[in-house]
Write a structure and sequence with these properties.
alpha/beta, Rossmann fold, seven-stranded mixed β-sheet, 13 helices, 11 strands, about 15% strand, elongated
Length: about 325
């Protein structure tokens, strides 16, 4: 999944290069507008904080090749993307027709960010973009891998989903645990409407959801308690009130309730779907958290860490009051 995202970012980078060619009038500097060397033209862009970090990150994952202060596409990409007279058509084909216009718009925004680093992309725009290129398949796989780390049976009858996106984690949980009831809560105002739309669109009978707290659903769970609590946040969306989430979790847990958190950890940020440079460009992205900080705050709310899987940023804890 991470590689898939970077592949799309590499295509997006080609769009950015195309826009720089158009904006700077430097068509004669390269045989293809997709040659990332043009971003280094007079070091005007490569030294910008956001774009510079993006290029170094993509070079680390070998989508780019660094030649001093110049970054070029890897040979495989240069073969895929032909001469500039055909580049727009090529980008359209490689990026998929349905993505082309969206990537064009996003590329223009990245150019503005490179020129004026106070400007940022809205969190909702980024999420919709990732949702579009991924069709939820990759994120579904990531969540499935996380759930597999729980090593539990399908006996959990009541599952609480603290949602950090458009609602697809609740949909996935409802399918994986078809005989269970999924209680989903979304408090991020940037996603409430889209979240409610997603939940209602799939019409899963075993999902109950709320976009307010306190709510009748949470009040009922405080009495009934749940078996499993999940917070999937592989993109690193800012969880401003992690204590609030854990306070809710504590109130709806019984002894032995499992808690699964998937969130980028600063211990090894390069494994995150959202690298530092992209987090800097997006309004509403959170900071990476350290494992030790998580252990402390979990303990303060009665949760004992049982397992940590750093590669996929997974923490599994158990309520032990």
């Amino acid at each position: 999944m991470i590689e898939d995202i970077f592949e799309h970012v590499a295509i997006l980078n080609a769009h950015i290069a195309q826009k720089i060619v158009e904006a700077e009038g430097i068509d004669d500097y390269c045989s293809t507008p997709c040659d990332i060397a043009i971003i280094s033209h007079d070091k005007k862009y490569v030294q910008r904080n956001y774009i510079g970090k993006m290029l170094h990150h993509l070079a680390e994952f070998e989508f780019m090749e660094r030649r001093g202060d110049v970054f070029v596409l890897q040979e495989a990409w240069r073969r895929i993307l032909p001469a500039k007279v055909k580049s727009v058509k090529s980008l359209r084909e490689e990026g998929a027709h349905s993505l082309f216009l969206f990537q064009e718009v996003l590329a223009k925004k990245f150019i503005e960010i490179a020129k004026n680093e106070s400007q940022k992309i809205s969190l909702s725009e980024l999420i919709y973009y990732i949702d579009t290129i991924d069709s939820c398949d990759g994120l579904n796989l990531i969540r499935s891998d996380a759930i597999a780390e729980l090593d539990l049976s399908r006996s959990s009858k009541k599952i609480f989903d603290y949602n950090q996106g458009l609602g697809y984690s609740a949909i996935q949980l409802s399918s994986l645990f078809s005989k269970s009831t999924i209680y989903s809560l979304q408090l991020n105002p940037a996603f409430r409407d889209a979240y409610a739309y997603t939940i209602n669109k799939f019409q899963k009978k075993n999902i109950k959801f709320a976009i307010d707290y306190p709510s009748e659903m949470i009040n009922q769970l405080m009495k009934d308690k749940v078996d499993l609590i999940c917070m999937f946040n592989p993109l690193g969306i800012e969880v401003r009130e992690i204590s609030r989430f854990l306070d809710i979790s504590k109130q709806i847990s019984k002894e032995g309730t499992k808690l699964l958190i998937q969130n980028p950890l600063i211990d090894d940020p390069k494994h995150s779907l959202i690298a530092e440079w992209l987090g800097m460009c997006v309004e509403g992205m959170g900071l990476y958290s350290t494992l030790e900080n998580y252990k402390i705050i979990l303990s303060q709310h009665g949760f004992e860490v049982e397992k940590v899987e750093k590669k996929n940023n997974i923490i599994i804890a158990k309520y032990n009051p």
